[in-house]
């Protein structure tokens, strides 16, 4: 199993908005959909998928276990609830959304429960999200690096998260970039715009292509069909070594997601 390069995210999308986004995405040709228990939209995502007529076998669906459900008593039961909402017998990938605050639930406990969910056929692959190097090592100690498909982290030109990405690469763990466009902040960057102009591409296409050329998966969200269509074209954009070097130089450790009481001690 592998992690597809490009999918659609559903963070912050609710009700008819998320239904429309998923429907439009599937019509545009996307087959990867990323959701989470805490997003409160799994049922709507499931409804949109069911209405699309796209065979389940063609889809790659990811959900994430919320911190309230990390204990061995709750994790599998909560995932079964997610499957019911998503109207599927399994998901392709299940992630631990955030590490347990203050280590309340040990990494070894929730990773073992996640591995058991996989053994039961509830999920095809398992992984983590928002994990530091130290936490990734604990997850590896618990279930082994080959069992961990990905670490989904904030990663964009202004926060390139190289320490975590390098550690993951060394252990054969894929990186999934979320907020790849930094809430749109990087789209106005002069360097990005100049590269886009050279390639007759959009700034978003450039940034997505940059992340994918580094080997990362990306899951941008959009409520607009035109943007969904446009983002897909990033798959065909090939950036030069000079382009990649210019974007690498934009690193400024600008983290946009670090919730109080939830975020670990970042690398």
From TrEMBL:
Domain of life: Bacteria
Keyword Oxidoreductase appears in the UniProt entry: yes
InterPro entries per the UniProt record, alphabetical: AKR, Aldo/ket_reductase_CS, NAD(P)_OxRdtase_dom_sf, NADP_OxRdtase_dom
UniProt similarity note: Belongs to the aldo/keto reductase family.
Record bears the keyword Disulfide bond: no
GO terms, molecular function: oxidoreductase activity
Domain spans labelled NADP-dependent oxidoreductase: 6-250
Pfam families assigned to the protein according to its UniProt record, in alphabetical order: Aldo_ket_red
UniProt gene name: dkgB
Keyword line: NADP, Oxidoreductase
EC numbers: 1.1.1.346
PANTHER family according to UniProt: 2,5-DIKETO-D-GLUCONIC ACID REDUCTASE (PTHR43827), NADP-DEPENDENT OXIDOREDUCTASE DOMAIN-CONTAINING PROTEIN (PTHR43827:SF3)
Gene3D superfamilies: NADP-dependent oxidoreductase domain (3.20.20.100)
Protein name: 2,5-didehydrogluconate reductase DkgB
């Amino acid at each position: 199993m592998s992690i597809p390069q490009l999918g659609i995210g559903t963070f912050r999308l609710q009700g008819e908005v998320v239904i429309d986004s998923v429907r439009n995405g599937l019509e545009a040709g996307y087959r990867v959909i990323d959701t989470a228990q805490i997003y409160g939209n799994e049922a709507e995502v499931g409804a949109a998928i069911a209405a699309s007529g796209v065979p389940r076998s063609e889809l790659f669906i990811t959900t994430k276990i919320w911190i309230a459900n990390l204990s061995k008593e709750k994790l599998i039961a909560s995932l079964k609830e997610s499957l019911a909402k998503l109207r599927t017998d399994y998901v392709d990938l299940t992630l631990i959304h955030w590490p347990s605050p203050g280590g309340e639930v040990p990494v070894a406990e929730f990773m073992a429960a996640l591995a058991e969910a996989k053994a039961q056929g509830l999920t095809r692959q398992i992984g983590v999200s928002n994990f530091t190097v130290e936490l990734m090592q604990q997850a590896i100690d618990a279930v082994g690096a080959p069992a961990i498909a990905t670490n989904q982290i904030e990663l964009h030109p202004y926060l390139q998260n190289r320490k975590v990405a390098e550690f993951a690469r060394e252990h054969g763990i894929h990186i999934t970039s979320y907020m790849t466009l930094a809430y749109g902040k990087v789209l106005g960057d002069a360097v990005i715009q100049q590269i886009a102009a050279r390639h007759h591409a959009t700034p978003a296409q450039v940034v997505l292509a940059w992340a994918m050329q580094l080997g990362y998966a990306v899951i941008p969200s959009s409520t607009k069909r035109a943007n969904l269509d446009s983002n897909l074209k990033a798959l065909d954009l090939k950036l030069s070594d000079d382009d990649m070097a210019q974007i690498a130089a934009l690193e400024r450790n600008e983290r946009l997601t670090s919730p109080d009481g939830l975020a670990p001690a970042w690398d």
